[in-house]
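Backbone-to-sequence.
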């Protein structure tokens, strides 16, 4: 037996009347126009900003109290400084081309003189 699909209610479809498309306002108040919705959005955004400001001030106050109570430092709260990553030391070459004297450390893309060859014969 085939499942019967429920048909959408007529109010959900656009109604054509005299060539004009009219959408159903079911569930939406007549007072809710685009401009009033934008005004409500602006009011809500202002309330959100104010609530965030208040809660942020409270959170900062609590954090300061805890820092003072336990004598914490910035390193205690945020972790120590990361080790500085300076320039790395040079790596000694592992391979030498006997014909030219060119060397290669064995890192990165192999040069043409050693590519696809037995590296043991070029080992230093």
């Amino acid at each position: 037996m085939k499942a019967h699909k429920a048909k959408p209610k007529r109010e959900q479809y656009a109604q054509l009347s005299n060539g004009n498309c009219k959408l159903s306002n079911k569930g939406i108040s007549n007072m809710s126009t685009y401009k009033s919705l934008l005004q409500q959005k602006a009011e809500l955004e202002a309330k959100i900003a104010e609530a965030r400001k208040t809660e942020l001030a409270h959170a900062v106050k609590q954090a300061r109290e805890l820092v003072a109570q336990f004598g914490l430092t910035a390193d205690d709260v945020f972790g120590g400084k990361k080790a500085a990553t300076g320039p790395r030391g040079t790596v000694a070459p592992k391979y030498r081309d006997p014909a030219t004297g060119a060397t290669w450390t064995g890192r990165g893309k192999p040069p043409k003189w050693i590519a696809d060859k037995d590296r043991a014969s070029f080992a230093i």
